[in-house]
User: Which sequence fits this backbone?
């Protein structure tokens, strides 16, 4: 594919586009990228939630087939270029530095996701402030909301897909519930908006808030200690589902999040989803252990005689009671809502 020549990226005034998507993101991202011209004057950095064992090649193939820009996986240490699309590799966060250097890291998951949307958006806001344009597309839960707030607080532009057309509207809706965005539009209108924004003159840079800078450093694994997290919020009597550590509660206005000192971070919705998943895992382990105990007691009852046999048989029956109760909980016909579904 022929790529048009683009002027060198101006790190002082050039703009950076960051995009986050989850469920339904393949079609949404393809529809967005195909609107951008060959000479698009900004780098585009993408995070889409995919499983750790996926390659992301299906998405890249779709973007390269239908779009005009060259798309590829981000490479650690690479300097981004205008007119290129960079996709976060599976099971890795994608971050950026002020000099345009890409960081591909195995930092702690945020909102149960790696790659996470929030870490990319936050690092972009810290590095480029009001030169950043953030876009949230279709997906479950609310990854990206905190990152979009960071972009807005640093003077950037916020664009959200109209939830009415999103295949999975949770992510756009949750973002809209927490901040007043600059644009809430169908994907088909985003290309024109980006073209207009690329022609704007970026104003004077805002001061980057200290708390956003600290969180960005934690994601880079530069900071990961108690004083850093203590400065962001207050300890709460909850444990991190990711590592079992203590959580700190952070809130700006009505938006509440939680973070542990090793780097895991959650919104209230994603924390509840993670706790629910851990409870289910624990219940299945308990079911297996009770079934193994019952099988062993049944074997003892058959092999032994007299009081030992009778006692083992009684304990096997008691174990069956617990097995039935746990199985009933696990198999209960409790229809989940979107907040309980995996990303």
Assistant:
């Amino acid at each position: 594919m022929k790529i048009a020549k683009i002027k060198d990226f101006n790190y002082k005034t050039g703009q950076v586009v960051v995009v986050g998507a989850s469920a339904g993101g393949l079609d949404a991202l393809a529809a967005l990228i195909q609107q951008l011209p060959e000479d698009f004057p900004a780098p585009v950095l993408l995070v889409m939630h995919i499983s750790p064992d996926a390659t992301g090649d299906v998405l890249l193939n779709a973007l390269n087939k239908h779009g005009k820009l060259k798309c590829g996986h981000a490479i650690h240490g690479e300097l981004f270029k205008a007119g290129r699309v960079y996709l976060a590799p599976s099971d890795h966060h994608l971050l950026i530095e002020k000099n345009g250097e890409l960081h591909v890291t195995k930092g702690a998951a945020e909102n149960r996701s790696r790659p996470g949307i929030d870490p990319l958006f936050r690092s972009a806001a810290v590095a480029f402030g009001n030169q950043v344009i953030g876009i949230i597309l279709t997906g479950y839960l609310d990854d990206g909301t905190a990152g979009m707030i960071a972009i807005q607080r640093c003077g950037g532009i916020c664009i959200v897909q109209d939830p009415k057309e999103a295949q999975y509207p949770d992510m756009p809706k949750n973002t809209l519930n927490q901040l007043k965005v600059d644009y809430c539009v169908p994907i088909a209108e985003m290309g024109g908006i980006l073209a207009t924004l690329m022609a704007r003159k970026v104003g004077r840079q805002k001061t980057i808030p200290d708390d956003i800078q600290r969180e960005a450093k934690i994601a880079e694994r530069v900071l990961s200690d108690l004083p850093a997290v203590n400065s962001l919020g207050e300890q709460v009597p909850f444990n991190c589902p990711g590592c079992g550590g203590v959580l700190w509660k952070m809130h700006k206005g009505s938006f509440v999040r939680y973070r542990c000192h090793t780097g895991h971070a959650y919104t209230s919705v994603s924390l509840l989803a993670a706790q629910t998943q851990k409870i289910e895992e624990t219940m299945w382990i308990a079911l297996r252990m009770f079934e193994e105990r019952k099988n062993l007691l049944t074997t003892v009852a058959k092999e032994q005689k007299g009081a030992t046999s009778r006692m083992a048989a009684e304990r096997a029956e008691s174990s069956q009671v617990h097995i039935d109760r746990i199985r009933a909980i696990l198999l209960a016909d409790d229809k989940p809502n979107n907040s309980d579904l995996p990303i």
Observations:
- Confidence is low (pLDDT under 50) at residues 1-6, 335-343.
